[in-house]
C-alpha cells in the first residue's frame, strides 16, 4: 500500500504586510500593518507609526517589513488623510490622538510604542498624554532642536532620529534597513 505524503513547507520568516479598516470616532480608519510570520500578537509591544502631513501611513511602508519581524506594526492613515474618513471640521492634534486611541481600544492593545514623524510628533505626544499607561517608548523624527526639547520633559523613554534622510533617498532600502536596525535596538528587539 502506497501512502501519500504531505509536503512540509518551511515556516515563513518575513512578516505579513496587509491593509485593513477599523472604526474610529470619525468613521473608518485605514491602516497599513505588518504582523510577524509566527503571529506576533502577544510577543512584543505593538508599534504605532504616526505620519506627518499629508498623514498617510504609506510613508512607513518601507519600515513595515524590517520592524514587523518581531512585533505588530500599525501605520494608519490619519482621519481625513489617505483612505481614512475625516472629521466634520478641523481636528486638533489631541482630536487625532483620540481617534488613534479608538484604534488602540478596538484592537485591544494594552501597550504601544510610538514612532511619529514631522507633524505626527504632536499627535504622538498628545496620545502619550492621553494614555500615559498605554504608551511605552516614543521615537520622534526629525532630529531637530524643537523635537529634542519636547523629549526632555517626557516621562517615556524616547529616541530622536531623522527619517527624512531615508525618505529623501527615494525610500532607499539600505537606509531604511539601517534606521530599522536603530529602531529595533532602541525598542529592545535586536
Proportion of strand residues: 15-25%
CATH architecture call = 3-Layer(aba) Sandwich
Instruction: Output the structural class.
Output: alpha/beta
**What form results from the Cα inertia axes?**
globular
| Major sheet details | 7 strands, mixed
Rg over CA atoms, rounded to whole Å, is 18 Å
Q: Given this structure, which CATH class is correct?
A: Alpha Beta
Number of domains: 1
Low-confidence stretches: none
Query: CATH topology, which one?
Result: Rossmann fold
Order of helices and strands: EEEHEHEHEHEHH
Mean pLDDT: 88
List keywords for this structure.
190 residues; Rossmann fold; globular; 7-stranded mixed beta sheet; alpha/beta
Descriptive overview:
The structure is a single chain. The protein has 190 residues and is of the alpha/beta class. The protein has a single domain (16-186), classed as Rossmann fold (3-Layer(aba) Sandwich). It is 31% helix and 23% strand. It is built from 6 helices and 7 strands, in the order βββαβαβαβαβαα. The chain has helices at residues 61-67, 93-106, 120-130, 145-152, 164-168, 173-186, and strands spanning 16-24, 27-35, 46-50, 73-76, 112-117, 135-141, 158-160. It has a 7-stranded mixed β-sheet. The chain is globular.
